[in-house]
Amino acid sequence: MKAKVILLALTGVAVGVTIGKTVEAMHKFRAQVLKALAEEPLYRVSGPLVSVIIPALEEQDYLPKLLMSIQNQTYEPIEVIVADSSTRDSHELADQICRQYGTTCLHIPMLGPANARNQGAGQAQGDILLFTDADNVLAPDCIENLIRSLQEGYIAAHPVECIIDDTGLAAFWAVWITNWLKGTNATTRVVAIWKDAFDQVKYDESCVPLQGCREDLRFGKDIIKRFGPGSIKLNRDALIGTSARRFKKQGLIPGKVPWEYRGVRDGVIR
């Protein structure tokens, strides 16, 4: 009986410490990301041109923060391409936002996130491509750290994540799912890749959201299949913040992301 009490006490202490560290990390990561929206970087490093490609669909509420965070990166040079599949009125708003930030805005009539990514990549001039969802914010040194991984010999690299627009249970849980437990090959939200390697794999446009297919995860699998194990780097020094909307829609247990966040509206792939 005494041993059980001691075991329960130790378990309680361990759980308490874990919760404390998670909460601390949650706030630390969030503050680190938000610096990209508050100030210009203290330094910049130069390297190969990076083309940032943003597939978008009715994302005009999120684009300004993402574009500002890209503008405040410690890495240069960067070109930005928004591959927008919005309706005419929303596309005009997206185009206005892009002009404010000196960004190229393509109108992609054919619906589907994989197609938007591939079309954007087709217009890119950089030796390195970086794909990001529109509701992300990149920590100031995110691109610098991802490019460092590629220069170390990796084919692709992706960051860890946190939630920036919520400090509740979703943000707490996200530290576990999208940071500490994130898989090396889980190329979601943001991924950087050499362009010549991308041209050999690309995003699989047969991966249909309506059928529950995740084109971003399929991309990681295709990279491994083409270039072998160890070709992708999970860089834990690179950090992004993202919206809590997926957690709020799908719940805290990972599963299929709702259609409205996989490029589908009202049962139509977009």
Topology:
Elements: H1 2-38, E1 45-56, H2 63-71, E2 75-84, H3 88-100, E3 104-107, H4 113-122, E4 128-132, E5 136-138, H5 142-151, E6 156-163, H6 169-180, E7 190-194, H7 195-201, H8 215-227, E8 232-242, H9 245-250, E9 264-265, E10 268-269
Parallel strand pairs: 1-2, 1-4, 2-3, 6-8
Antiparallel strand pairs: 4-7, 5-8, 6-7, 9-10
Helix pairs in contact: 1-2, 1-6, 7-8
Index terms:
10 strands, 270 residues, two-stranded antiparallel ribbon, Spore Coat Polysaccharide Biosynthesis Protein SpsA, Chain A, 8-stranded mixed β-sheet, single chain, globular, disordered C terminus, alpha/beta
Structure, explained:
The chain contains nine helices and ten strands. It has helices at residues 2-38, 63-71, 88-100, 113-122, 142-151, 169-180, 195-201, 215-227, 245-250, and strands spanning 45-56, 75-84, 104-107, 128-132, 136-138, 156-163, 190-194, 232-242, 264-265, 268-269. The N and C termini lie far apart (61 Å). An eight-stranded mixed beta sheet has the order 3-2-1-4-7-6-8-5, with helices on both faces. The chain has a single domain, classed as Spore Coat Polysaccharide Biosynthesis Protein SpsA, Chain A (Alpha-Beta Complex), CATH 3.90.550.10. Helix content is 43%, strand content 23%. The longest helix has 37 residues, at 2-38. By secondary structure, the protein is α/β, with parallel strands linked by helices.
